[in-house]
Amino acid sequence: MQSSIPGPMTNHLIDSLPSQDRVSFIADCEAVDLVFGEVLTEPGGQIQHVHFPLDCFISLIASLSDSERLEVAMVGSEGMYGMPLILGLDESPLRALVQGAGRALRMPAVVFCRHLEQRPALEALLKRYLYVLMQQLTRVAACTHFHQVEARLARWLLMTQDRAHSDRLHLTHEFLAMMLGVRRAGITLAAMSLQGRQLISYHRGDITVLDRAGLIEAACGCYAADRSIYRRVITEGGALAGTS
User: Fold this and answer.
1) Burial (CB count <10 Å: 0-12, 13-18, 19+), residue 92
2) Phi and psi (nearest 5°) for 122?
3) Phi and psi at residue 118, to the nearest 5°
4) How far is residue 31's CA from residue 171's CA, in Å, rounded to a whole number?
5) How far apart are CA 51 and CA 106, in angstroms?
6) Chunked mean pLDDT (size 10), the chain, 244 residues
7) Which of 99, 112, 88 lies closest to 163, judged by CA?
8) Which is nearest to 60 in space by CA: 43, 73, 42, 41?
9) Domains in the chain, ordered, with CATH?
10) Helices 149-164 and 222-230: crossing angle, nearest 10°?
11) What residues contact residue 231 under an 8 Å CB cut-off, 6+ apart?
């Protein structure tokens, strides 16, 4: 579903572009409403559009089989979906699932590639973002193997809260189990523990973050590490040529 370009702009990557590049880039975007549960691309599918979330967020899911799935990255207003295009590839290695409904800026892949060729500042910024994603993907693999479910759940809830821009989330045990790659019973125990510590409240899929500071303490160090790498490489990564 298409809509008018919203304002103010709330995608950090686009906001980080030099003003002239930013205006030209936005002119070739369209604003779309993404629906919860919408699949943007299946593994092996062609990436026809890039998406820059504004107030929605997208899960990137590795699938070994219909019953073996794991979320390996999450994209919200801090990033974009369609990164293989930067490498000259238009095939998605992951399933892109809309996890939080909302608005995004969308651009056809062919137009995006033209902007990459013509705008060095855009290419430099997105290469840095690609590095951030690589770091996050690596950390997810280690986190899934070494860290306890409760700490991973706390981390995942914080990541979701950041991108939903809300303390209230709707997430079933089945969905959380799929996202974290664990059994439903493990999610139930972890959620009960976080609720018992009064960090969250949980009822029939409705989760409310009650104590964000406490949830950060309960989370594994991967949450802080992800935010740190983004801040160091993207936010504090040095001015782009021509920024004004």
Assistant:
1) buried
2) -65, -45
3) -95, -15
4) 26
5) 5
6) 48 95 96 95 97 95 84 94 96 95 96 96 96 93 92 95 91 82 89 96 91 97 94 76 40
7) 99
8) 73
9) 2-144 (2.60.120.10), 148-219 (1.10.10.10)
10) 40
11) none
Coil/strand/helix, residue 22? helix
Whole-model pTM?
0.88
User: In the chain, where does DSSP find H-type helix?
Assistant: 12-15, 19-27, 109-118, 120-146, 149-164, 173-180, 184-196, 212-218, 222-230
Burial class of residue 235, CB neighbours in 10 A (0-12, 13-18, 19+): exposed
The full length of the chain comes to: 244
C-alpha distance across the termini of the chain, in Å: 33
- Cα 226 to chain center, whole Å? 12
Location of structure tokens 């207003």: 77
| 95 phi and psi angles, rounded to 5 deg | -85, 130
